[in-house]
Amino acid sequence: MGNSRLILALDVYELKKALEIAESTAEYLWAVKVNWPLIIGSGLEIITELKERTGLPVIADLKLADIPNTNRLIASKVFEAGADYIIAHGFVGRDSVKAVMELGKTIIVVEMSHPGAEEFIQPVTDRLIELANELGPFGVIAPATRPERVRYTRSKLMPGIKVITPGVGVQGGSAREALNAGADYIIVGRAIYESENPGKAAKRIYEEIGG
Ligand code: NUP
């Protein structure tokens, strides 16, 4: 749905299950995010298939963190498969990020949602935000588990760069709080795909955040 701000993190292995969940939730989503579990379990073709079945944008959450050439080799195949966005780490440096951005729309990780992110990533978030401001990616990843960090990131980030926040639901973050803190999109995985009725769960979150 074009006006939705909900992204489904489809972290299941099986192709059939993935397609079922995607189809039953599609009307409440802005995009579907695939990560390594699904790509390992179902192959890269799952991206093409998801796009065909749902008509939604697909985000490939590979968190690329390699030298420019390897990032380029991976990203070119993933964009070729139909991914609309790729998530890349910023901490490896601007050359590695640029290699992805030259091939397609990119989302840069500037902070993560788990407790361990405070160890090494949070101390360099300011510099990662500067990097994003310099390169102008589609968006950045900030933690819904720490709404104050979402607010901080939004305040330092150039307008126009989207703030995308995972950590809603099982990791403890609230969709409303993340959006109130300035997030443009929220990412929800287990709270939807582990639910008995993923369609209903997605609808509930969609309605909670006001469509
Ligand atoms: O900081 C991050 N936290 C995070 O959870 C960056 C991410 N990309 N993710 C991803 O979002 C994570 O890998 C998973 O695919 C999804 C969150 O899933 P869940 O905790 O809602 O099940």
Catalogue the unreliable spans.
none
Bound molecules: 6-aminouridine 5'-monophosphate
Strand content: 15-25%
The assigned structural class equals alpha/beta
User: Please, how many domains?
Assistant: 1
Helix content: 40-55%
Mean pLDDT: 97
Could you state the order of secondary-structure elements as H and E?
EHEHHEHEHEHHEHEHEHH
What is the total tally of β strands? 8
- Radius of gyration, in Å, reads 16 Å
Structural description of this entry:
By secondary structure, the chain is of the alpha/beta class. It has a single domain, classed as TIM Barrel (Alpha-Beta Barrel), CATH 3.20.20. Helix content is 45%, strand content 18%. The protein has eleven helices and eight strands. It has helices at residues 15-25, 36-42, 45-54, 68-80, 94-101, 117-120, 125-135, 147-156, 175-180, 190-193, 198-208, and strands at 6-9, 31-35, 58-64, 85-89, 105-109, 139-141, 162-165, 185-188. The protein has an eight-stranded parallel barrel with strand order 1-2-3-4-5-6-7-8, surrounded by seven helices. The termini are close together. The model has no long low-confidence stretch (mean pLDDT 97). Residues 9, 11, 35, 61, 87, 112-113, 141, 143, 166-167, 169-171, 187-191 line the site of 6-aminouridine 5'-monophosphate. The site of 6-aminouridine 5'-monophosphate has 19 residues, from strand 8 and helix 10.
